[in-house]
Amino acid sequence: MIFLTLGTHQPFDRLVEGVDRWCAANPDARVIGQVPLERGSYHPKHFETMPHLHINEYRALFQKSEFIVAHAGMGSIITALCLSRPIVIFPRRADLREQRNDHQLATVRRFRGKTGVHVAEEVETLFDAMDTLHGAARQAAAPCADGAGNAAASQFADPAFVAALRDVIAAGAGPRSVN
After folding, report:
1. pTM over 0.85
2. Would 179 be classed as within a structural domain?
């Protein structure tokens, strides 16, 4: 099973339609999408949708999935990394009026190349990433084939960062004024 999540704030028809097209070409794949349809104009025909999920249902779908397809939202990325699930991130773009600004493009730049994170900025690269991950999962005959053997990301900050932050606080370095 593949889990699609869009977040709950805005519609993302370009991603929903792209995944629906991929599902039409891959009828063996089961996709479940957390898609608030009341906010979008595209209604998928080839995969199951749920408009809202309780946090426990959301986490259960993450855990059961071969991989995740998501907007480039930090909550989705962090959850996938913490659960060792591969994720395809597809950023919302301001020039297409999917977002107020391009902060999701900045997120993509930051996570590009990280183990388990697959970046797709266009529908064609979305199809490629989904084909690759779905094919790997089928070949391995195990969920999360791409994430197998990858250590889950810690829910806590890097100890070196925490130590450096403690040093700054202990030294009494207060907030800097911005002119």
Report:
1. no
2. no
Residues forming beta bridges with residue 110, ordered by sequence position = none
76: nearest Cα among 65, 57, 66, 89 = 89
Strand partners, 49: 33
Looking at per-residue confidence, does 168 or 122 come out higher? 122
Of 17, 22, 11, nearest to 2 by C-alpha is: 22
> Which of the residue ranges 30-34, 83-87, 135-139 would you say has the lowest mean pLDDT?
135-139
**C-alpha closest to that of 90 among 117, 115, 120:** 120
Task: State yes or no: pLDDT of 176 exceeds 70.
Answer: no
Structure tokens at 82: 């913490």
| Residue 27 tokens, joined | 């009828």
Domain CATH number, residue 41? 3.40.50.2000
Domain that holds residue 94: 2-170
Other CB atoms within a 10 A radius of the CB of residue 80 amount to 27
Contact 35/100 with Cβ under 8 angstroms?
A: no
pLDDT digits (tens, 9 = 90+) for 47-59: 999 888 888 999 9
Other Cβ atoms less than 10 A from the Cβ of 104: the count is 21
